[in-house]
Amino acid sequence: MKHILAFLLLVIISFEVSAQIKGEIAGDTLETIIVTAQLREQQVLDIPVTLSTISAQMLENTHTTNLEQLSNFVPGLNIRIQTPHRPSFVIRGLTSDEVSPTAQPRVSVYYNQVPTSRASMAVSELYDMERIEVLKGPQGTLFGRGAQIGAINFITKKPDSSFGGYLSAGTGSFAMKEVEGAANIPVIGDKLFTRVAGIYSYQDGYITNLSGGKLNGKNTIGGRFSARYIPIQNLKIDWVVNYQKDDNPGTAFMSKRYPNAKGEYDIFNYEASLDEGKDFYNKRDVFGSSLDAKYYINDHNYITSITSYYKNSADSRWDGDGTIAPAIDMSELVKANQFMQEFRYNFSPSSRLNGLIGLSYWREDVKQKYWFGPNEQYMVYPLLEMMSQSFPVPMEVPPLVMGDGKSYPMPAIPGALLGSPYDIPLPTNHEEENNSGAVNSAYDIFADATFRIFPKLSLTAGIRGTYETFKTTNESHMIGGTPSTLGSLMGGATRNFFFAEAPYSEVTKDFLSLTYRANLKYDISNHSNVYASYSKGRRPNVVQYNSAGESEVMSAET
After folding, report:
1. Which residues belong to any copy of the TonB-dependent receptor-like beta-barrel domain (predicted)?
2. Residues near 390 by Cβ (< 8 Å), separated by ≥ 6?
């Protein structure tokens, strides 16, 4: 969708007893829910944004520890995790699932006020959380680049002056085991506090690969160290270090068109037939560190500095055709790191006005390697099937996998099919590789404020300017085996099938953009309000190379 300009007229008559905003009512008393969705501490009903907040208590009561479970509690949100580094976020029917180094997401994911939207960094286990905030609609003014259709803000529990902790464990089907715990340890009186937390989650794959091994399982361990230092009364420093390691079995890509090795077509019998057996995997490591310092000028005016560094690597191998046939073997390796520095000044000179101004710098370096190992004596079947109508001589092409679950190679394409007197031999061991990368950076300056015009009527407005630089690199090569026959027949590269051979090249582009928002809110009572909101979101331009190795620039989405 090229344009997403959200105009929302929402009537909120809420007593905050709902699945997504959990309020505890004792008699006629309503619990105060404090959130930071507007980068300042506010009550939920003070925020004229479509916001869902999931509290720590709700996460504990529902034993929610993975992202996909959030879809059960937040209307309009759907999260699916194909692998730990290939999540899909859907808000109001619009999807963000970009994995290319050159593409930016449509949904911003924040972790303790640090952007972790890159697909290979976005997935984390939900343990020892304070709350989760889900904002729907364009949020570019507050959450920056990539918040075209919404934002998700994860806030973990921070250390305090109490001594304590918890430990929980559970088991389930498919040998599921999960252990989670945390300990809060004061170190120096009311000056220094620490907190450690961790989780281990394991489950056998629920898909049996008839060629060997299990698929769609989980083996994850995560840990977090947090420290809070208050050297003087008006200075608070939070340091958080995260680490998560995923060592999962492969993903069960299964075809409904072709049967498994037993000759069965029903994918819901949970039996796949992927030819490489136990050799499929999904591995990922994520490390992150953030330093959040707040200097309080007084109770209502303070300066915030956020410094963060994240890095990760993700490696996976899968069956590209989803059948017993060794047609397409594929793997992907992603390595990424990012740095961010942000400064904000929050102000509230009177009870009628509050807001913030800020500036930030963000930079990421991403490298992605795709490897393809097709056996063209099998891959030829679906291609011939697609081309059969154009053959000089009519031919009924057999399927890639027969009805009995067996697959047979075609050593050569009959020459008569292509009007040639000779049969055309097909290789079994072609290998090719595409290496792409991006160094993306952005400078942002932003401001947002709320002014109470009358006791029950308030106006909120914000604006963000962004200057971006994208440097994109690309190269593709045949790295082993025999040159692709099918690639040359399809009119593409002479030696490769998927990517045209291309030497290393790079291109750099700069862009300047502006996003903004404005809304008007009227308080009907202490527990209900009505507001109108207008906002402009933006997904940045994409500087990329196509399969022919040519650079191109895709327009920004607004």
Report:
1. 229-547
2. none
